[in-house]
Amino acid sequence: MNNKDENLKELFGKFYDAAGAESAAEDVAQGEKLFVDNPAPQPDAQLLETIKARIYQKLEQRTPHRTIKVYLKAMAAAAAVIVIALLVFQNPPEQSQNGKIITAGFTIPWESSDLEDDTNLSLLAAQVQELEDEVITLKLSENGSDTYNVDELESELLAINDDFWKG
Amino acid sequence: MKKNRVQQDISSIIAGCKKGESQSFTELVNAYSNRLYGFFFRLSGNKTTSDDLLSELFVKLVEKIDTFGGGNFDGWIFTVASNIWHDWLRNKFRGDKALAGLKEQTEYETNQQKVTKSDNEILDRLGRELEKIDDETRELIVLRFYSQLSFKEIASIRSEPIGTVLSKVHRGLKKLRQSIGQYNYE
Questions:
Q1: Cβ of B58 under 8 Å from any chain A Cβ?
Q2: In a domain, A154, yes or no
Q3: Is the minimum CB–CB distance between B12 and chain A shorter than 8 Å?
Q4: How much is the average pLDDT of B167-185?
Q5: Which residues in chain B (118-147) have CB-CB distances under 8 A to chain A?
Q6: Which residues of B are less than 8 Å from A20 in CB distance?
Q7: Residue B25 has pLDDT above 80, yes or no
């Protein structure tokens, strides 16, 4: 708001009575007219040119500072990204929030209290056991020495049995 | 309508200054130098001091312009001018105090008297009468006239109640008017 838009009478009216407000507003208006009637000197053209030259000089000095500031900001941002990346990759996955979610995803079915789930689990365990036995049998049958040892042991047992009855 | 256009012009000048455009600073100097010079001259009563303070203000603005966060630019720039004036007063006071302690005190006082006398010689009647008013009231009167701010805005930037500002300016201007009227009568 410019002071020329101000209603001085109204403003002074908040502090004085009507007559006092009018008189005060008149004092201010007439007092300020003294400044209009007695203008201050204006700055010399030479002074203004000198000021402008100093401003240009200052602006030139300021430009490298601004460039350096931009570089420093970019470097700080890059450093922050590197630090965050190192922190993320160095930590084991289960320590991270995502890792926790994945682990929880695998464990949830096994924690079920549903009886059907428990039966399925038993069947699955039995099938796994069967598969393990079959794998062992196959391995034993593949291994010639093992087969030989079983046959030899059987022959020895038969011989021991015959010897026993013969006295 | 015209006021809005002026405000838009000032806004675009300030935006240019913030980008570091020299042309915008030139426009800023052209737009504000007369009023700011009047402000410094009516407070100091001295052309050389006013020259120095005006230069200091505009050079400082190159650094400070980024801190202007919008609002009334006239209020902001005259607050900066007022701060520069107070800094100058403080430095002058310290300088005077230090000089007063020197052995050449007598010589200094003689020179000061000469300076004051020569300053007064160039002062007009208004300047001489303004010097008789207390510093605070004088600054308010001068700020009000040259900044063209409203009483409400002046009260806001000076952190003073509006009633106090009104009262001081009214009393000061009334005294000024009476003394100059008396001078005219004589």
A1: yes
A2: yes
A3: no
A4: 83
A5: 124-127, 141, 144-145
A6: none
A7: yes
Q: How many CB atoms lie within 10 A of CB A56?
A: 14
Domains of chain B, CATH where assigned: 1-123 (1.10.1740.10), 124-186 (1.10.10.10)
Residue A49 in any domain: the answer is no
Dist. CA B165–CA A8, nearest whole Å: 13
In angstroms, the CA B41 to CA B47 distance is: 6
Are A40 and B46 a contacting pair, CB within 8 Å? no
Most confident residue range from A24-38, A89-103, A137-151: A24-38
> Which residue range forms the structural domain that includes residue A28?
1-40
ipTM, 2 dp? 0.80
Question: In whole angstroms, how far apart are CA B14 and each of A154, B89, B95, B129?
Answer: 107, 29, 36, 36
Query: Is A75 domain-assigned?
Result: no
pLDDT, tens only, B91-148: 887 777 676 666 555 555 555 444 444 444 456 889 989 999 999 999 999 999 999 9
| Residue bearing the bigger pLDDT, B8 or B56 | B56
Interchain pair B37, A43: CB under 8 A: yes
**A50: in domain:** no
Chain B residues within 8 A of A66 when measuring between CB atoms: 20
What pLDDT, on the 0 to 100 scale, is given for residue A4? 64
Does B33 contact A1 at a Cβ distance shorter than 8 Å?
no
Distance CA B77, CA B80 (A): 5
Domains contained in chain A, number: 2
